[in-house]
Amino acid sequence: MARIAGVNISVNKHIVMGLQDIHGIGPTRAKNICNTVKLEPSKKIKDLTEAELESVRSEVLKYTIEGDLRREISMNIKRKMDLGCNVGIRHRRGLPVRGQRTRTNARTRKGKPKPVRG
Q1: What pLDDT is attached to residue 117?
Q2: Superfamily assignment of 67-110 in CATH?
Q3: Is 38 exposed, middle or buried (0-12, 13-18, 19+ CB in 10 A)?
Q4: Distances from the Cα of 114 to the Cα of 21, 31, 96, 104, 110, angstroms
């Protein structure tokens, strides 16, 4: 297991796929990291030298990732809820935020259907 940014990454994965295990790094950012460090994206993590791993670690630390990113996202949601804007109200009520319909679907956000009392 290689440890990058506090996340254990399997040594059998390619660098690009392994970097995507880190919260906040997707396919594009993983490829950019490989390009700046001048590594082949298809190279496996077990084939990296310690110096290459260290350069990948230093490049990853330039981005907002893992705990800091999660904290930033939750603070943004809390800020919108405190403001009382439409997005904040939708978060508070547990409804879809981005304009999706709620008459049907939306079960993921709304939870189990409640029985109708008549």
Answers
A1: 85
A2: Ribosomal protein S13/S18, C-terminal domain (4.10.910.10)
A3: exposed
A4: 37, 46, 17, 13, 10
Q: How far apart are alpha carbons 22 and 57 in whole angstroms?
A: 12
pLDDT of residue 93: 94
| Global pTM exceeds 0.85 | no
Residue 54 reports pLDDT greater than 90? yes
What is the band of 37 on the pLDDT scale with cuts at 50, 70, 90? Answer: very high
**Dihedral, CA of residue 64, residue 66, residue 69 and residue 74, to nearest 10:** -170
